[in-house]
């Protein structure tokens, strides 16, 4: 993984953002904008129908035969070159424009979650599957059905404008975002082995913003998703004679508290860090000291340097507490999905387009980085990348919670997202080359 770019101070970003002179009111649309809007309006009913079909038939992880077939068939009907088989069911659609220019990419993830849907939507999922030996419902509770519709819609709009489009656009339909680092696997499977983008764009639905609003963050947007499992071992003994063995529950409890003290006393206040012990299991009877206690912990922070700092501190803390108690232990610390880093220069470029297309800066909402994880970060190791948050809160609600069985999304967000992304990509492709060749 490449090192993260140097963060631009907030004060500089404010100056740069102001210097772009973003419009605060509607402006006369250019012919290209009018064409993109007209194409988007025409496509919207079809995209909504596709979204509802995918929502009704969700699929999990890397095994997305139905969804990936829909995407691949749609790309073929648009005349794109289609490549399949990345991360098992990933799809790459390649659109070559009618003019010379750079290569850019857009990602849409396709997988659902093992959640039983509890909405009254006419296209609500009734599908069920077996996962880890138990039967579960399957639901698009994180909006990946919306993401897929946005990917297809943007591909359709830009395909219809092929003659005006400089360069090449890669449409990356990704499986396994929720569970399996599908982005990492697509890269490992060679999705970019002979055609590499210079910039990457994506959306994620936002359950706090209304349709028509776009959320953004410059720099880190999501957190590293790291963590560890810990087993504290003991010979075990009777609860009436605790002096005869190490009590792994007491040692585990000390570690739980010490982790929180570490965060508040050893980590800089600007180095946002969360350490959560989500699982603590030990014992089976009130009068027996068990032979082990097991903890499962998630660790969230930003950037490559900080995740190594946390690993070192936690390893030291666990080792010292267990040694002081005379306890043996097994610690398994793992780095998971890395932070999403939104390239500041690319953010500014896209925000200028967004303010123009959406009618002013009032549609843009600056947000703080989240502690959730997103494997779009792997695509950020290929090229500078930006992920925008797309408002999907229905008009009759104040919020709608992703990863919940009651999640619903306002489909008015689909044309907003398609129209904006088509303009962002077109603007990016039409920029003058950074290093034009001298004649």
- Residue stretches low in confidence (pLDDT < 50, at least 5 long) are 1-25
* Strand content bin: 25-35%
Biggest pleated sheet: 8 strands, mixed
* CATH fold description of the largest domain: Aminopeptidase
Helices, by number, come to: 9
The portion of residues assigned to helices is 25-40%
The count of DSSP E runs of length 2 or more, i.e. the number of strands, is 18
- CATH homologous superfamily placement of the largest domain: Zn peptidases
Biggest β-sheet: strands ordered side by side in the sheet: 1-2-6-3-7-18-8-17
The appropriate CATH architecture of the largest domain is 3-Layer(aba) Sandwich
Q: Which series of helices and strands comes N to C?
A: HHHEEEEEHEHEEEEEHEEEHEEHEEH
**Form type:** elongated
Summarize the structure in words:
By secondary structure, the chain is of the alpha+beta class. The chain has 2 domains: 21-222 and 339-430, 3-Layer(aba) Sandwich (Aminopeptidase), CATH 3.40.630; 224-334, Alpha-Beta Plaits (2-Layer Sandwich), CATH 3.30.70. It is built from 9 helices and 18 strands. The chain has helices at 10-19, 31-56, 65-77, 144-160, 182-188, 248-266, 304-325, 344-357, 413-430, and strands at 81-86, 90-96, 99-109, 128-131, 134-137, 166-174, 199-210, 214-216, 219-220, 224-233, 237-238, 274-282, 288-289, 292-301, 328-334, 341-342, 364-366, 385-393. The strands form 5 sheets. Strands 1-2-6-3-7-18-8-17 form an 8-stranded mixed sheet. Helix 2 (31-56) packs across helix 9 and helix 6 (248-266) runs antiparallel to helix 7. The chain is elongated, with a radius of gyration of 24 Å. The model is unreliable at 1-25 (pLDDT under 50).
